[in-house]
Amino acid sequence: MLLNHNLLKSKPDDDVAILARARTLTALQGLDTERKGRLLIFLHEAELIGFLDSKNQPHYPIISLFGANLNGADLFGADLGGADLHYADLRYADLSYAYLRYADLTDANLLGANLLGANLIRADLLGAYLTDAYLLGAYLTDAYLTDAYLTDAHNLTQQQLDQVYSCKNATLSLGLTCHHNPSG
């Protein structure tokens, strides 16, 4: 589809993009955790699921991974800057040391995900489910955590929370406080 059907020049609502989405979601169902990770990295490198250009400007995806089953995906150290993963099922995924700058993880299910040392600078985690996620050393500078669920998030510190852009209405573990609540 990339070569014969001009997928890279298509829009998300074009027939070729819709077919590519359907085939991608179907393929993900039958893949083990390592291959799920490889497929996601390929889609990102092919600039199909959103990406950052050389000026760190995010670009919209051609293929939507809305609701994609990425459960347990092995994405250790993956570069997914600017990727659109909203509503994706990333439960127990290994995103340790992943580059997720400007990634859209709105309403993503990150239950038990390993985000050790992950770069989540300016990532959109609105409504994301991060319960039981491992966040030791995760970079959350200017991240959007509005309405996120962070109860029982492992190793989330007040210092990390103090660097986010917003954590308004976030559900936090006992002892942590959101100091960033921009209006609007």
Could you explain how this protein is built, in words?
The chain is mainly α and 184 residues long. The protein has one domain (1-184): 3 Solenoid (Pectate Lyase C-like), CATH 2.160.20. The protein is built from 3 helices and 4 strands; from the N terminus they run ααβββαβ. It has helices at residues 15-29, 33-45, 158-161, and strands at 51-52, 58-59, 149-150, 171-172. A two-stranded antiparallel ribbon has the order 1-2. A two-stranded parallel ribbon has the order 3-4. Strand 3 (149-150), helix 3 (158-161) and strand 4 (171-172) form a beta-alpha-beta unit. It is globular. The model has no long low-confidence stretch (mean pLDDT 92).
Brief summary of the model shown:
The chain is mainly alpha-helical and 184 residues long.
- Tally of discrete structural domains: 1
CATH homologous superfamily title: E3 ubiquitin-protein ligase SopA
General form: globular
Characterize the main sheet.
2 strands, antiparallel
SS-based structural class?
A: mainly alpha
Q: Beta-strand level of the residues, as a percent range?
A: under 5%
- By CATH reckoning, the class would read Mainly Beta
* CATH architecture designation: 3 Solenoid
Find the CATH topology: Pectate Lyase C-like
Q: What is the string of helix and strand elements?
A: HHEEEHE
Low-confidence stretches: none
